[in-house]
Input
Amino acid sequence: QVQLVESGGGSVQAGGSLRLSCRASGYTYSSYFMGWFRQVPGKEREGVAAIDSDGSTSYADSVKGRFTISKDNDKTSLYLTSLYLQMNSLKPEDTAMYYCALSYSRWVPLDHRQYNRWGQGTQVTVSS
Output
């Protein structure tokens, strides 16, 4: 059973940094990609960044130059990965619940409908 567990959210002042982590386990797909999404109440889930199994990345325009997605495949298991989102120069509009997600569908990196598995989310709050 696929499990995605996020951590690293919190509260920070504008201009500060946070690093989100997501531990993915239990999947058996050799071809997959992973992404970070965010959502505020009353709005659609928004794609923030994504990375495929070869390391190619995609970012929303609103976070380009500020956020960096990366992953670290576990050296002891083919099916264990840690996903990260380094968030710098945070703005109040970055405040949201952030979700880690995994997809074994076709590569449409920032479309939440292409993702098959989701974590429980971690809250990020940026104050002005």
